[in-house]
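Bug #77: duplicate submission created two jobs. Keeping one. Sequence:
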Amino acid sequence: MFGALRGIAIAGLFLAYPFLSAYFARQGYAPLVLLTFAALTAWRGWRLTKASWRYGSFALSAMLVIAAQSAASYWIWLLPAAIYLCLACLFGHTLLAPPSLCERLVRLQFPELEPGIAEYLRQVTQAWTWFFALNVPVCAVLPLLAGQQVWAVYTGVLVYLLMGLLVVGEWLYRRKRFPDLYIPPVLETVRFFALNGHKAFKNSGT
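Kept job's structure:
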């Protein structure tokens, strides 16, 4: 339970990042924000079991520290793009080293899968990989092309609405594609993954 609550707390901090970073940047504390997330990234990397993910976390942490020493405030706006890049790599990695991440998550709730479900979950994992990958350039160029306020609204609100649409859309499509399959309500599934989803990442080297 402590691990789940800790994961929820960290996720909440990242969710609030766009608005926190915009506020602290206006106050002149952009380096402090970068150093805080550098420390969190290094701490998370230290707990990883797979060497490649651990060194990747340390490299990202080092870049955040270097960026904190720079006078260019643009670095503070790149963190969401870096997060989505990591998520795209995480989801994409499990496509090359199955089972897919979505399958690992679903097996936490349903250890035995019906025929065809594993392949379907692989396709869902591919969709999420593309979603995160496409958000990398979007989040990176928005502060340059549209300004910090638009960037904050997109990364702090709109992107999560898009995620919600993707989740609900997939749930509706799954009910149509597998009419005889028991499918829990969306909120029940979200709650279960929020409390237990971290267990699936143990097998992904995280």
